[in-house]
């Protein structure tokens, strides 16, 4: 296959058919920390739009601060039902407020309220204060659409390198590396 995004979608759909994991869209997202150390955490890849991987989260938490300073990022997926690893490297770009609103509205209500009341990554003094703030928003905005907090962001990751590792039951696993050359993707096979 010449296009790694089509290949990604095909393999992901296959994984979705078989998987029973709770968050199959989970992937490891790595940024370069402000101290220069790589920093990884799991996020959910919301979708792939126009060949870009979409993630969301708090702009004021570490990931938001880090991508503001350094747009070089990586994603790694491990799909356990089909035994596929996907590694993505690329540049990240913040999406506009229409996009963050759209992804915020797609969150379940509990997660929306948590995004509103909890400044992700700040030191927690007393969980009771957060629970109280949660209740206030829950009751005050009952039955109403919740507005996107200014801290909530959506980003696109524009890939330039994507590698698939497909475990197979023989001795040698398949490794296919795609690299962007201008507007086209070239692919090579790597030794496992
Ligand atoms: C399976 C899984 C999915 C997650 N999805 C997201 C997500 O989509 N967005 C997000 O901000 N945090 C998500 N988290 C929480 C992050 O791993 C992390 O704890 C949080 O975003 C704070 O990271 P930061 O301090 O680097 O900003 C997820 C965690 C797990 C385990």
UniProtKB/TrEMBL annotation:
One of its GO terms (biological process) is pyridoxine biosynthetic process. FMN binds at residues 41-46, 62-63, 85, 175. Its cofactor is FMN. Residues 152-192 form the Pyridoxine 5'-phosphate oxidase dimerisation C-terminal domain. GO terms for molecular function: FMN binding; pyridoxamine phosphate oxidase activity. It comes from the Bacteria. Transmembrane segments: none annotated. InterPro entries: Pyridox_Oxase, Pyridox_Oxase_N, Pyridoxamine_oxidase_dimer_C, Split_barrel_FMN-bd. Residues 24-135 form the Pyridoxamine 5'-phosphate oxidase N-terminal domain. Keywords: Flavoprotein, FMN, Oxidoreductase. Binds 1 FMN per subunit. It holds the Pfam family PNP_phzG_C. Belongs to the pyridoxamine 5'-phosphate oxidase family. This is Pyridoxamine 5'-phosphate oxidase.
